[in-house]
Amino acid sequence: MFSAVAVDELTVFQEFVDTFPVAGRNVLEVGGSIPWERVAQEKPALWVMVDPVNEAIDQGIYQGIQGIASSVPYPNNSFDYVFSCNAFEHISDLEETLAELKRLLKPNGVIFSHFGPIWSAPDGHHLDIVHNDCSYNFWEKTILPHWYHLIFSPEELSEILESALEPELVQAIIQHVYLSDWINRRHYEDYLRAFEQSGLTLEYLAVTNEVDYPEEFPAYRHPLLEGLTKDVIQAKVEELHGKRFRNLFCRDMKVVLRNY
Questions:
Q1: Which positions are tagged coiled coil (predicted)?
Q2: Cβ atoms within 10 A of the Cβ of 153, count?
Q3: In this predicted model, what pLDDT tens digit does every residue of 84-130 receive, in sequence order?
Q4: Which H helix or E strand runs over 202?
Q5: CA dihedral 174, 176, 180, 182 (to 10 degrees)
Q6: Is 137 helix (H, G, I), strand (E, B) or coil?
Q7: Under a CB-based contact definition with an 8 Å cutoff, are residues 205 and 2 in contact?
Q8: What is the per-residue burial (b if ≥16 Cβ within 10 Å, else e) of 116-137?
């Protein structure tokens, strides 16, 4: 039914419109902004986007709100669908957001959300920064090995990274991974709990542990890395987090939540 990895937004959008009839319906997009040229092909009655980095847009049936999804200035029962791609892993106030989306949905309305990588995934640090005009992100310039964000403290990881990277870049990485509000640092079970408590019905759930890029990292040298094979890393992750969080391999999640 769906592809495994939350790839680009237009691909996920195509899955959404292939599954749900958008023509003549009101749709709220959480995060991102599907271009009007593509939205118009589906002939919705209303398409509203909400994102903290959006610019305000008012083009009749195509609207953009600069804001957060837990506070959307529309009346109750305004939307037939909520569409979201690669956004839920960034939403800190997820419970409040789900409550707001439930308020905004019409009876029998649907949330379609495809997102990842989540925090407990191998690349759940979701590294995506620009330093000295150079882009470092988790899918192209992979400088943070898998699960290091879960098995090392900020101080430990800083020491490890400084064996191969300049100190300013290291500090930018540490800030992003452990302190920034760019990601919500929720584990798989945290999402399931939020969905269960939302009052919405989880109608569909698909997950994947697929990592769709090659693992190529700088050669770090530090005593903490001695004997640190993939098997040892996995064992450490399970030791540190397995008692509380069961699914440590889910990378991307795709859900359909219905407002019965």
A1: none
A2: 9
A3: 999 999 999 999 999 999 999 999 999 999 999 999 999 999 999 99
A4: strand 201-208
A5: -160
A6: strand
A7: no
A8: bbbbbbbbbbbbebebeeeebe
3-state SS of the chain: helix, strand, coil percent to 5? Answer: 30, 25, 45
Handedness of CA 155, 217, 191, 11 (dihedral sign): positive
Task: Compute CA distances 128 → 22, 31, 34, 40, 155, whole Å.
Answer: 32, 16, 21, 31, 20
What six digits make up the tokens of 193?
A: 């709990």
d(C-alpha 50, C-alpha 54), whole Å:
7
Round to whole Å and give the CA distance between 62 and 57: 7
Dump pLDDT digits (tens) for 1-58: 445 566 789 999 999 999 999 999 999 999 988 999 999 999 999 999 999 998 899 9
On whether the CB atoms of residues 129 and 153 are closer than 8 A, the answer is no
Q: What structural domains does the chain harbor?
A: 9-115 (3.40.50.150), 128-182+213-241 (no CATH)
DSSP 3-state of 27: strand
Element (H, E) at 111: strand 105-115
Q: Other CB atoms closer than 10 Å to residue 247's CB: what's the count?
A: 16
Q: Which residue has the tokens 């707001």?
A: 100
Each residue of 180-213: pLDDT tens digit?
999 999 999 999 999 999 999 999 999 998 888 8
How far apart CA 182 and CA 152 sit, in angstroms, is: 20
Sheet-wide strand order for 62-66? 57-59, 62-66, 46-51, 26-30, 79-85, 105-115, 252-258, 201-208
